[in-house]
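With this grant's support, we have settled on a layout for protein records. An illustrative entry appears below exactly as we store it:
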Amino acid sequence: MLAPVAIFVYARPEHTIKTIEALANNLYAEETDVFIFSDASKNNKTEKDVKLVRKYIDLLSDYKFFKSVTIIKSKTNKGLANSIISGVNEVINLNGKVIVLEDDLVTSPDFLVYMNDALDFYENEKRIWSISGYTFGIKFPKKYTSEIYLSYRGCSWGWATWRDRWDSVDWLVSDYKNFKSEKDLVKKFNRGGRDMSSMLDAQIEKKIDSWAIRWCYSQFKSNMLTVYPRVSRVKNIGLDGSGTHSGISSRYDANLSSSIKRCEFDYPELNDKIIKSFKNKFGTKLEYFVIWNKNLIKKMLRI
């Protein structure tokens, strides 16, 4: 049974069209149930684009791109975090698994093949938290032969998981005070990237509204891993300043294959060199020294 796909859209009509068209060109597309969650406009500035997005997705039921298309339009603006949490809750209960996309992710023709095969292969491997369709430009050791690698950090750019993992998340982060008081825990959490603990701090302080950092924190608490492909099946086209939470960057560009190739899944061990290369994608030591020591730097500048 193929996993249903949940797509979250907002106010980027051009990006949404590219995301839907790429998914429609996937092998398995015509056998896949698709659920599109459209958030309502936050203000007058985005109202026009939200209407354009909804006009486009309304037309999808007239075409047989997918097995079925279900459109859920919010009457109020939920924001990305609440939209994804509630939407995934709804879809994952259908058959215990879900594949998730946002409106700025273009997929390769074998994305659905890769994601469904991975969901089937790792379902009963309880150390696996989620499947990522995206990968960074990682430097792999010469003797590393696996077509996938493992990381301490989940990915929000085209991902999949199972109901038992999703249902275990504590979205309130109720043990945050205890976590913050233990320096060893903070250091351990940052194995997935130097930005992890600072993002969680910002979430608790309500400076950001991120479902993903809470998702990653629960992964850390469960001591579980995410599967990444060596060859990316997802490209983010939204780092062009058009998104609510995205700036402009080419740092995370990925080249997608135009062919369909089945991945040979296995059970590789964590690789220290890959983990280091992965971690370095999230800033330099100097950048995060500045983040963690703002008050100290301010005092030094006064002197």
